[in-house]
Description:
Layout: E1 2-5, E2 9-12, E3 19-20, E4 33-38, E5 45-50, E6 57-61, H1 76-82, E7 90-97, E8 106-107, E9 113-116, E10 121-124, E11 136-137
Antiparallel strand pairs: 1-2, 3-4, 4-5, 5-6, 6-7, 7-8, 7-9, 8-11, 9-10
Amino acid sequence: MIFTSKIHGEIEYENDNIITFKKQIPGFDGSAKFILVDLKDYEPFKLLQSLEDDEIGLIVTSPFDFEQNYEVKLSEEIINRLGIKEEKDVIIVTTITLNSDPKKITTNLKAPIIINNYNKLGEQIILDNSKYEIKQPLVKE
């Protein structure tokens, strides 16, 4: 199938690539179906594109690529709600806020997006850890 994003143009995807957010991402009401797209020329970044609004596309990345000691402890409630059976099925990404000055690019380590890649359920959670910030600089000086 093909989805046309207002910003990223035509994106090819399969039905089994659709990630459902039963608890919608805060600020994006009305968008529950997304696809995670590799941005080949911009590794390690990906696009989390809404299939219900062609203007909603979040740039995300694996926080572990930039923060080696990053820890996410999932509650039993989240594990059950997302139907997580095995750790290998979990994808964790954080949103990126872009800036023309690379030193001002930030990532939201406080509220990662958890995706069960097996059943394609996702949810953004808020970590109860004061060392993580909503606008954490992506690159340390």
